[in-house]
């Protein structure tokens, strides 16, 4: 399959190259020029379908030669476009020249194929040195094992990658360059789980990665039947969830879940209130407040700022976990 794709690509590229075995890179640098030489052979042991060669413009001396993968989409008027990097899923050209390690010298990423996530572009990265360019295993890993090319924040001196699996799992990572190594300082994994987004967050603290977890109520895709908004920004939701159960969700002002409950509820017809007990704490919810009882102690949450919906809306739903008394 790999050999077939290389042959097919060469077939298209030969037409664009107008019977020539070389293609010039559109001017990407004041110091360097580049030429792509199409491969005449395809070998399962060799990645790429061409050889990309860079030259010093003043001396004409070859400074870098590497296997590369050219696509017909790279070509414009018989030349290969460069320095296109649309993050995360847009077009990314065969050559990207940028300062990756924040030393004020432009480095080079050369597309080696389409081996990153979901068939996205993958790159070999070469860092600028006093003697030319040197292959970087660390930066190549960032540019090959995630979703396409990484992005660079020159002001913060940080690097960012993203990868995913299907619709429901994403990973976002932040790196810095220290002691000639690429080092992660934050890794966030998002898992979309129905009503919630579950985040695993690793952050570097005093040189070590520390992990924490949070659950976010997904307000964009959920429509609660009843909501209480408190003056301090916290929110309470009652809504129909999985298995036709009533769900209670209490969040902070940033939608981080502080308590989720979906077991047995009791509805008091006379008091017009829902009640449930969780870890020896009883919650009594009316349309205007939440009364919390812990043993002999009881207290009410902050004054209600706003409510949405009515208990009459909730009572129209036949919940599996609500018992009337």
Strand content: over 45%
State the separation between the terminal residues, measured CA to CA: 67 Å
Give the proportion of residues in helices.
under 10%
What radius of gyration results from the CA coordinates?
A: 29 Å
Structural class: mainly beta
What is the H/E order?
HEEEEEEEEEEHEEEEEEEEEEEEEEEEHE
Any chance you could write out the topology, listing elements then pairs?
Blueprint: H1 2-16, E1 22-24, E2 32-38, E3 50-56, E4 62-68, E5 75-76, E6 79-80, E7 95-98, E8 107-116, E9 120-129, E10 132-135, H2 137-142, E11 151-153, E12 158-165, E13 169-178, E14 181-193, E15 196-205, E16 208-217, E17 226-230, E18 235-240, E19 246-251, E20 257-261, E21 265-268, E22 273-278, E23 281-285, E24 290-294, E25 297-300, E26 304-308, H3 311-315, E27 322-324
Polypeptide structure, described:
Helices cover 8% and strands 50% of the residues. With 325 residues, it is mostly beta strands. A six-stranded antiparallel beta sheet has the order 11-12-13-14-15-16. Strands 25-24-23-22-21-27 form a six-stranded mixed beta sheet, with no helix packed on it. Strands 20-19-18-17-26 form a five-stranded antiparallel beta sheet. Strand 18 and strand 19 form a beta hairpin.
